[in-house]
Structure formats: C-alpha cells, structure tokens
Design a protein that fits this description.
This protein is α+β, with helices and mostly antiparallel strands. It is built from six helices and four strands. InterPro entries: Integrase_cat-core, RNaseH-like_sf, RNaseH_sf.
C-alpha cells in the first residue's frame, strides 16, 4: 500500500497536505469513538511524509463516491479482460493507458479532461 502511495506522489510530482483514503485494513486498526487508530507501519509513514489523512466513512456515498468512482472507472476501462502477470508490467500498462486514454476523457463531475486540470507542467510546479 505504501509503495502505491509513493507511486502516486511520483506520478503527480509531489504530494498534497491531505490525502483522502477509503478505510482499509492495511492502514487502519480500528476507529475508537471517532479517532482512527492506524497500523504502526502506516502511522510511522504518515508522520515521516508529513501529510494528514481524511478517511471516508463506511457506507457514506458522499465521501466514498469520489474514490469508488475512480476505482470503478479503472476496473471497467483498463483492468477488464487484462491478464495480470507481474505488478511492474501492470503498472507500466496502466500508466501508458492513462497517458493514451484514461486522462483524456471528459470527467463527469468537473466537465474537463484530467490532463487539462493536472497537466504535466502544472503537476511538477504546484504539487511540491
């Protein structure tokens, strides 16, 4: 999970101060009265990298919808009918697909192409 997070930071040329995640057992142990208890590994990583985390609430479409829609989009448009052999190959193919197709379709919510909002020059300058 941490490698995926680092890959995202590299792709965007930096990171934001707050990261939105779905609640996942790879990074959370439990929720105690609204306080999130992270795994030891994720807590150390979060502190080292210096970002805060906003976790989506379970079964709450307003917070989970944004994340789940991205996952559905990738599953339906990139992952469907592809055979997975090695993670590195999968990641390379996904990045090539994003460059060629995924980031060029008009997003339903913002009515823009992701490449227009997160253009490579913009990413490198603004996210550091």
């Amino acid at each position: 999970m941490l490698r995926s997070q680092e890959n995202a930071f590299e792709y965007y040329g930096g990171r934001t101060d707050e990261i939105v995640h779905d609640q996942d057992k790879l990074m959370t142990v439990s929720e105690n009265g609204g306080d999130i208890i992270y795994t030891e590994e994720f807590q150390a990583y979060k502190q080292q990298r210096g970002f805060s985390v906003y976790l989506c609430k379970a079964a709450d479409p307003e917070t989970k919808g944004k994340i789940e829609n991205v996952v559905k989009f990738i599953k339906r448009n990139f992952a469907k009918n592809r055979v997975y052999h090695q993670l590195e190959t999968w990641n390379e193919q996904c990045l090539a697909w994003l460059d060629r197709k995924g980031n060029y379709q008009v997003h339903n919510t913002i009515k823009k192409r992701p490449t227009e909002v997160f253009a490579p020059d913009y990413r490198k300058e603004s996210w550091r």
